[in-house]
Amino acid sequence: MRIMTVCLGNICRSPAAEAVLNHKLAEAGLADEVTVTSAGTADYHVGDQPHELTREVGGELGYEFPTVGVHLAAAHLDEADLILVMDGANLADARALTDDVDIQAKVRLLGEFASDADTAGVREVPDPYGHPRAQFEDMYRQIEDAADGVVVAIRDGRL
Ligand code: 4NP
After folding, report:
1. With a 6 A CB cut-off, is 90 part of the ligand 1 pocket?
2. What is the mean pLDDT of residues 56-71?
């Protein structure tokens, strides 16, 4: 299974989600079955390392950041089995890359997998870019919770 995480710039939320998912999938013994990469709907940061605070906070939490910024293209949607986006703008921008409704349906909000999605509704992952460290810490808490839901859904055969 191939998962791609997507945000706007591909330096904050989606590389964080990529790193968290890869870590949790490895812990669950699923690293050989699932690959996770990431991309941005904008091309601002192609080739760039993740944001300093994404790496600083994520590094303290034990995550690794081997990839650099990639601009999301239609071919990525074809190749992936599941595209997990952070907010409604990402959802619209990613789906606009194709007219194929089956491919559009592969693009889903990461928040669908949050532990409180059933009760609180599906929330976006807010963009921490330009905000202080606390917002990056909040981002990781939200992504870690939803990533646990993704791993359980894969393990249970729901994805
Ligand atoms: P991300 O955050 O979408 O979570 O990576 C952003 C990073 C950079 C920019 C916007 C959002 N930017 O405008 O450069």
Report:
1. no
2. 98
DSSP state of 112: G
Indicate the top mutation candidate among 4, 6, 7, 8 to test ligand 1's pocket, ranked by most ligand atoms within 8 A of CB: 8
Which of ligand 1's atoms lies nearest the C-alpha of 7?
3
Measured from the CB, is residue 63 less than 6 Å from ligand 1?
A: no
Say what the pLDDT of residue 69 is. Answer: 98
pTM of the model: 0.98
Q: What is the pLDDT of residue 20?
A: 98
58 in contact with ligand 1, CB cutoff 6 A: no
- Burial class (CB within 10 angstroms; exposed 0-12, middle 13-18, buried 19+) of 131: middle
For residue 25, CA distances in Å to 68, 95, 110, 153 come to 20, 26, 15, 11
Domain ranges of the chain: 2-155
Superfamily of domain 2-155: Response regulator (3.40.50.2300)
